[in-house]
Design brief:
With 60 residues, this protein is mostly beta strands. Helices cover 0% and strands 42% of the residues.
């Protein structure tokens, strides 16, 4: 078992059905929808992400 932190920046939003594994981070102002943020992943500030594996949220 591993114990570590998920770092969430100021103003970031974590949506429903999002799982953040230990040692990952979400930058300030970022939005993460339904997604799996894997160990070691870092979501850049002010971006939108979703999916498994996590990927940039493409507007349709």
């Amino acid at each position: 078992m591993s114990i570590d932190t998920l770092t969430v920046g100021a103003g970031a939003a974590i949506g429903p059905h999002c799982v953040g594994l230990p040692a990952s981070g979400v930058g300030a102002g970022a939005m993460v929808g339904p997604a799996l943020v894997m160990r070691g992943d870092s979501v850049p500030a002010s971006t939108w992400w979703q999916g498994s594996p996590i990927a940039a949220w493409a507007a349709t």
